[in-house]
Write a structure and sequence with these properties.
CATH superfamily: MetI-like
CATH class: Mainly Alpha
CATH topology: MetI-like fold
Strand content: under 5%
Radius of gyration: 22 Å
Oligomer: single chain
Structural class: mainly alpha
CATH architecture: Orthogonal Bundle
Largest sheet: none
Shape: globular
Low-confidence stretches: none
Distance between the termini: 29 Å
Helix content: over 70%
């Protein structure tokens, strides 16, 4: 049985590793310092000579704004779930979060294009992209926060309430000291999710070039995700394809860094 389980699990282990090695191999021709600081070679066009730090900063900025918007709402949902919701309301909250998490991101992007970009006249902007990313990561962040609070022993909560602590004092003095690592794990996973989305920000937030740093939250940004998307369409320009592969390696590195931090934090919490 062990041999059979290893045989079944082997493709799930080898295929991602092979894909990662293949991406790194394809990116090797463009992985140098000029990738991050740019080059003045006029023969390279369609953004292949841009400094990648601009796209990195745009991606991180949207990720941070999205988490800043989603975190208070996720905490409010979790507190309502733990303090005020009845059994039916809790079932409804779990079902709603699962439904929202199952909606394809491109649908969120199209809704953001119609509502935020056109109806509210925000335009292609950092604000529109951050709001859409916040909506996308909200179910994941809310579910992780709820599970983090549910793991706290009921005896501690009941003792705190019996001593007369208010809900705010209960949160600050009992729940956060016990659940901060689980909540931080969920936040790191949400950051990785926000960094991996392309379609929503393609419709709402990003342009390919011409932006180094947004002038305001209603200005467009550049991002690694859309940078890779546009460069990958330039099949006749080999350097553009190489830069797309190298940008993919950088994006994978960012996503994996947040995911690995969450993994080791969870291991630390379990021990």
């Amino acid at each position: 049985m062990k041999i059979l389980l290893w045989f079944l699990a082997l493709p799930a282990l080898l295929l991602p590793a092979f894909a990662l090695l293949y991406i790194v191999y394809q990116a090797l021709p463009a992985l140098d310092w000029s990738l991050f600081v740019g080059t003045q070679d006029t023969k390279l066009h369609f953004g292949a000579n841009q400094a990648l730090w601009q796209q990195i900063s745009g991606s991180l900025l949207m990720m941070l704004l999205a988490c800043a918007l989603a975190s208070p709402i996720a905490m409010s949902i979790a507190l309502f779930h733990q303090l005020l919701a009845g059994p039916r309301q809790k079932l409804f909250i779990h079902a709603l979060l699962q439904v929202l998490q199952g909606i394809p991101p491109i649908v969120y992007g199209l809704c953001g294009l119609v509502l935020l970009v056109h109806l509210l006249h925000w335009g292609i902007s950092l604000a529109a992209g951050a709001v859409i990313l916040a909506i996308i990561i909200l179910p994941l962040l809310s579910s992780n926060t709820i599970h983090a609070l549910e793991r706290i022993p009921d005896e501690q909560t009941e003792s705190a309430l019996a001593l007369g602590l208010t809900p705010f004092q209960l949160l600050i003095r009992v729940w956060l000291p016990n659940a901060w690592s689980s909540m931080l794990t969920g936040l790191l996973l949400s950051m990785a999710r926000a960094l991996s989305e392309t379609a929503p920000i393609l419709f709402t937030a990003t342009v390919f070039s011409g932006v180094v740093w947004p002038d305001s939250i209603f200005s467009p940004v550049t991002s690694l995700q859309t940078h890779i998307f546009y460069l990958a369409q330039e099949g006749y320009n080999q350097h553009a394809i190489d830069v797309a592969w190298a940008s993919a390696v950088v994006l994978l590195g960012l996503v994996l860094s947040f995911s690995l931090c969450a993994f080791f934090l969870r291991r630390f919490e379990d021990h």
